[in-house]
Amino acid sequence: MAVLAMLTISGCREDDAGLPAVSPSERGSASPAPSAEQNNPRALVDAPRAGGLDKLTGDGALTDVPVDPGEMRDGMTLVTGTYGKPDGQGAPVLFEGVDHVPDDTNERREHLFRGMLEYIQWDPELGHPEAQPVEPGPLGGSVECLLASLSEDGNVICGWADEGTAAVALFEDSTLADAGKLFVEMRADLER
């Protein structure tokens, strides 16, 4: 909590409206259906390993929150990190998520998607990336990935939203299929 207090985190900015609408799920869709989860909400954990990737420390560790997570309220937790292969090969995966979200987690995921597009400096003049649904795995909810590249591989941003959590991750030099599969595997270690 002390680290969170030291970070300057702002809420949604008015200029978010100029960024691309990234997901068809937001249009005409409500929050994920209520379930037994409401009585026992899931939480995000600062996992030392996620989806077979190690959380990077030292020079590879995050020193700041790279994407605005939206308004943080009492009881919410922000989890961030970069994860990489144990052998150091490949680009690290940037992860950011929040739990105990009191509002619509689909809207929170959309906010995180827009923030990640801004982080990678996606030019809206290139078009509006469309999120594609991904099989969410045993944790359910809704998982989507979007390709922020003009080729078939490049920057892929994946996000999930469920009853109380929302998160996104950036996979550089990847495909939608590979990033989606790894994101679901990472989620199994990051959400409890």
UniProtKB/TrEMBL annotation:
**Source organism of this protein record:** Streptomyces pimonensis
Q: Where does the record place the region Disordered? A: 14-72
Q: What is the lineage of its organism?
A: Bacteria, Bacillati, Actinomycetota, Actinomycetes, Kitasatosporales
* Name under which the protein is recorded: Lipoprotein
